[in-house]
Structures are given as C-alpha cells and as structure tokens.
Design a protein that fits this description.
The complex is a heterodimer of chains A (275) and B (189). In chain A, 87% of the residues lie in helices and 0% in strands. Chain A has nine helices and no strands. Chain B starts with 9 loop residues before the first helix and ends with a helix. In chain B, 31% of the residues are buried. Classes of the chains: A mainly alpha (275), B mainly alpha (189).
C-alpha cells in the first residue's frame, strides 16, 4: 500500500473526529469576550471624554487668545483714538455715527470754511496789485467769512440741540472754540498782510505779484503752525509744511555750524600759536 | 450543551456573531468547537493545552469575524486560524525542533501494513513522532498544505519541510510494521 493511500485514510478519519470540549469552555470564552468588550467600551469612553475635553478647552481658550491678542488691543485703541480725534478735530464723523442724516449737512458746513479762505487769498492776489480800493473787497470777504462762521456755529448748535446729550454739547463747545480760534488767527494774519502791502505801496508805490505771493505763503504757514499749536491735533499737510520749514532751517543751521566750526578752528589756532 | 437554533442560515448566524451577539457566537461555538478541538489535538498532545489553544482560536475568530468575506468556507477559515494558533503555541513553548538526524531504517514495503486503524491509534502514532516531524506531517498529509506554505508557516526552508516529511513517513512506516509484526505474532501464537 502506498503512503499516499494510507495518508488519505488517515486524513478522512481525523477530519471526521470530533472531541467534545469541557462543560465550562463556552463560559470561559464568553467571559474573555465580555472582558475585551468592556475594555473596548472603556477605551471608547476615554476617547469621547478626551474629545469633549479638547473641544471645551478650545472653546475656553478662544476668548482668552482673543483678549490677549495685541492686534485686537490696537484695534480697540485705534477706535477710541479716532473718537477723540473726531470730537476735537472734526465733529462731523462723531455726529454721523449716531445720525447719518446730519453728516451731509455738517460736511457742507465744514467745506465752505476752506473755500472762503481760498477765496480770500485768490481775491487778495487779484485785487491788491491793481488798486488799493480792492482791499475793501477783501475785508468785505473776510466779513462774509466771519458771518458764515457764525452761521456754521449756529447750524452746529442746532445739531447739538437735536442730539440733546452731553457728548454733543462737548462737541459743540470744542467746535466753537476751534472755529473762533481759527477765525482770530485768520483775522490777524489778513490784517498783517494788508498792513504790509499798504506799507509797501506807500514806500515803493508799486507792489509786485511775487511779493504778495511771498507774504501770503508766509501768512499761510504761520496760520497752519498756530492751528497746530492751538488745536493740539495733527494733520498730515500741516506736519509736511512743518517739516519743510525745518528743512529750510537746517540749511541755515548748517551754514551757521560751518561758520561756528571755522571760527573755533581759527580761535584755537590763534590761542595755540607759537609766538 | 443545548443551543436553540435561532438562525436560519449560517451567513445570518455569522453576521450576528460578528456584531458580538452572544447567542449567535454560542451557536457557532457549539457547531465548530468539537471539530476544532480535534484539529488542535493533532498538533498538541496535552488535551488541556489543546482546549486552551482552541479557546484562544475561537476568541480570535469572534473578534475578527467582521473580516470574513464569505469567499471560502467558514469552517476552512476557522480551521486555518486553529492551525496557526496551534503552531504559535508550539513555537512559544519551544516544542518544535527540526532535527536533521539521519534515521536508519530498513527499506520496507507499505503493502504489508494494516491500515485499518482506529482514529485513536492514528493519533497515538502521530503523537509518537518528534514535534518537528509531526507538525510537518499533519500540515502536509491532513491539512493539505504545500511545502512552501509549511515553510512559511513554520519559518523554515522548503527543503527542511520536505526532509521532515520524508523522515516522518519513514518513522510511521517503521512503527506500523512493528505494530503489524506484533499483531501477526499475537495471531500466530
């Protein structure tokens, strides 16, 4: 008999064999399965608790990070600063935050001020060289300007009445003070310019355009400088003009410094000379 | 062990067992445990250890039942797990030793051998073989593994598998001839 035949018979018999396991074998297996299932559930619970803790943690951390964020602080400060500036410098924006209808009216109030000053300057340019009588028109324009300023103040006072709160009163007061200060400065400067032109006309008989332009530019610079000093606010154009003036001064200072150093050199040379 | 037949088909039973339904698992266990204990017993001489290995095998079956694709027979899949578990047990216990000793044997014919053996006698013959011989012989002759599969399962070379099988066959032949001689002598007396 070949080994393969023997093995086939052996295989058949072994495959047909069944050995009964012990009585409590299933209980053992069931207990093992229960233990593993409990462990799995425990792990699942831990995972869920962990995920929940991370979620709550992130929710709690978000406001902390937002409060500690320096960028957000800057934003807040900027917002506060803008409000202060608006109260001091331009009340129109502050009012517009609460009543947008008033914004247009206020902007229309602010604009004529600039237009009036320009008109004064232009009319002065055109009228003064021709005839001295035209000076009356400039003064007349100035009066118109002052009248308009008073109108502005009345309009703005009307706005404050409508608003009827403390903040609006503060804005009105600050606005009135700034407008009155501006009008005083402009009055003084116009008077100075007119006086200087009159003096020139008396002395030289004929006044050139260059001289008038120079006087007007000087007066404009002085007005802006005084505006900055009195209003305690900063505008870009005013700063630029200030810097330009400083640049001119530095040239003078450089010349002065050069003279000073030269003088010092000469002085030391004289002192240390060998007789 | 009394198990009430709740499920109509085996597929339904397996699917329920995969969802960790204890009643379905118990039904599958009752159906396959005796056969699987026989499989484990082929490799492991001690019945107590064989049962432990079978239980750990069933634990793996029930935990990995969701991976069963229903492509082959469920019994074959479970049987393979039992064989692997038995081999792992033997390896862990360092019971498998693949000796290359040359066994001196006489060339004897299989024709004189009485193959009408009871299953207990067959098991005794298998148990009498060294572990290395026995494992390779059972895997090849009973489970139908090929030499490359045996080499992979036992982490040995194919030539070692072949030589182990050859030696196992020779040893079995010798033992069967001895049994025959004894039985014939007894008859003669």
């Amino acid at each position: 008999m070949a080994p393969l035949k023997f093995e086939e018979k052996m295989k058949e018999k072994l495959e047909q064999r069944a050995i009964k396991p012990s009585e409590n074998s299933w209980e053992q297996l069931a207990n093992q399965l229960d233990d593993i299932e409990h462990q799995k559930k425990g792990f699942k619970k831990i995972w869920w608790y962990g995920i929940a803790a991370i979620f709550i943690g992130t929710l709690m951390m978000i406001p902390i990070f937002q409060n500690n964020n320096p960028a957000s602080d800057q934003d807040n400060n900027q917002f506060v600063d803008v409000n202060h500036k608006d109260i001091k410098q331009n009340h129109a924006d502050v009012v517009s935050d609460k009543n947008p209808e008033l914004k247009e009216e206020i902007t229309s109030i602010d604009k004529p001020e600039n237009k009036n000053t320009e008109a004064i300057v232009l009319e002065q340019k055109n009228s003064i060289p021709k005839k001295t009588n035209n000076l009356v028109t400039t003064t007349f324009d100035k009066e118109n300007f002052l009248n308009e300023n008073t109108e502005i103040s009345t309009k703005s006072s009307a706005i404050t009445i409508v608003k009827n709160d403390d903040e609006a009163n503060e804005i009105e007061q600050s606005k009135e003070t700034t407008l009155s200060a501006k009008s005083e400065i402009i009055d003084d400067k116009i008077a100075n310019v007119v006086a200087q032109i009159e003096d020139l006309q008396k002395n030289n008989i004929e006044v050139t355009d260059e001289e008038i332009d120079r006087l007007l530019r000087k007066a404009q610079r002085e007005i802006t400088a005084e505006k900055i000093l009195k209003s305690n606010t900063v505008s870009a154009s005013a700063l630029l003009q200030d810097v330009e003036q400083e640049l001119d001064e530095t040239f003078k200072q450089r010349v002065f410094e050069a003279l000073k150093t030269g003088f010092q050199k000469v002085k030391t040379a004289v002192v240390e000379r060998e007789n | 062990m009394k198990v009430i037949q709740f499920y109509k088909s085996e597929t339904q039973l397996i699917k329920r067992a995969a969802k960790q339904h204890r009643d379905a698992q118990q039904q599958l266990y009752a159906q396959y445990a005796p056969k699987m204990l026989s499989v484990c017993r082929q490799y492991i001489r001690d019945m107590h250890f064989a049962e432990e290995v079978m239980l750990s095998g069933f634990l793996k079956v029930f935990l990995n039942l969701k991976n069963f694709k229903f492509e082959g027979s469920f019994e074959g899949w479970v049987r393979r797990i039992m064989v692997n578990e038995s081999i792992s047990f033997l390896r862990k216990e360092k019971q498998i030793l693949f000796t290359d000793d040359i066994v001196n044997h006489h060339e004897e014919s299989w024709n004189n051998i009485n193959t009408e053996l009871e299953v207990e006698q067959i098991q005794e013959l298998i148990d009498s073989l060294p572990e290395g011989y026995k494992t390779v012989f059972v895997l090849y002759a009973v489970e139908g593994y090929k030499h490359n599969e045996i080499a992979k399962a036992l982490e040995i070379s194919e030539s070692t598998s072949k030589s182990q099988l050859f030696k196992a066959r020779k040893m079995l032949q010798q033992k069967l001839n001895q049994q025959n001689k004894i039985s014939n002598g007894a008859i003669e007396i």
